[in-house]
Fold each of these.
Amino acid sequence: MIKLCYKDWKTPRSYKLLAGSIAVFNFEWSNFNNYFVTFYGSNKIRTPDMVILDTAYFDAHPEAKPNDEVLRRLPKKP
């Protein structure tokens, strides 16, 4: 699991697009749509088999942190 922070509404009247970021990767998306939030961003239960990928995890496992090339491949509009 990676913490994704929602930042602001891009279409305040329709509430269909919002911006977000993944701080641990220093990566930002300018537009999330409601499908993405429902499908990927609404899981509120952490099961025992899930691992949180944060700075502490990447400090312990530096080989797991994506490099710049991998980060460039992340979708610009999920």
Amino acid sequence: MMAMEQPVGISEKRTLRIFNVGEPALAKAIADSIARRTNQLQRADGRDPEKRLNDFLEARAEIFRRIYGAAFNATDRLDVVADASSFDMGEEIKIYVEPWRVTLCGKAGPDPHNTGAGKKPVQLHGNIIFRFLDLVEEIDPSQARAECEGCVIEITLPKMQSGVRAA
């Protein structure tokens, strides 16, 4: 990951850190987490080779998926409001900011969105998970700010100045 790291505060036992990150570094972290989860599922299935692809697809769906949240378009910025309830309350949440995407990363906690009739229980607690939101406009990752209150993260992302491209 790139060296730019900004601690942005603690709110109800949640620490947030913003990283201005290049896509290859983030892709490797996501792939490593999916591989660990695939191995967990394979061990649970008795390493059945016929279930290997299904285990990988299930792991990918659990580890890397869209954020429950929204981006609000203001004149000079995008304001992202995201649900952080699937992350462990006592652990740090990393916010990876790219010009066209925001990704939250942290240890999984009990997932309140994984309940209901007919749903198979997912044992993700303690695994590193990623939640992302694609943005509608290019932003300046170096100027991102974030705050957390309970299970809601608010991220302020200044828009890229016209004529200037993000690195």
Amino acid sequence: MSAARYLRSQQAVLVVVLIFCGIALAQEPRLVSFNTVAVEQPTLSTPPPEAPQAQHSFFDGKNRFLFSTVLAFSAADFAVTRANLANGGKELNPMARVFGVSTPGLAANFMIEDAGVVGLSYVFHRTGHHRLERIAPLANVAASAFAIGYGIAHR
């Protein structure tokens, strides 16, 4: 697979992520209304209003699993990429190419990427986009899995 074809496949992944972002932007966080107008309600026939559901913790079980999966795939991607670069391979990701000249630089690239995924998930969590909060690490795992497979196939 050539570099141009690899970049086209990455662009296709980006388009899919952007489509999911459009769906997620249709979500709205819950807003609490503070009306000061008193409305008289019948006492016998109406049930009490339901309390809003409690928001889940950011580091709940699902997110801990997703983030540990991100770290595992990132470590595997680092190992495969470093082995390929040590054997004369070329970094195809133009953004990572800057860091790929040394092992510490490549490790820093993957750590920054992982921190970015967790940070993006946190932003989605704080803004009430809980589906995107879970999709961001899944997209990163898919991209890392693709990179691992590509790296192993082209040793």
Amino acid sequence: MSLGNREHHGRLSQALEQLEKTWYLEAFFLVCSAVCAILIVTFLAVYDNTNINNWHFYLPISAVVSTLGTVFKSTLLMAVSSALAQGKWTWFLKRPGTLSTFRAIDAGSRDTGESFRLLWHVRGQ
């Protein structure tokens, strides 16, 4: 690797580390998710009761809504997962806890079913 590439890689690594220390990326994902939700509702409201023959676009209506829905779910999942992962460390910084609580929070950041178990496990705490 040449010196120029190492310097570029070093600056890029520092920029990514700085981005990970802030909540900008999670905020961006939440904004993307909200925009997709608004676009879905607006799109469906505009094209409600429209004849399919009047649709002059490359993709069918269902593909557009499905794509927006997938982007909505993905970006929301990324933001919530990151917030739960950070919340795990914040939780143990402020109060003592057991390893089972740590595991429940960790699992809750990865799976919907585990998220509901996490809510049951930490209720009222």
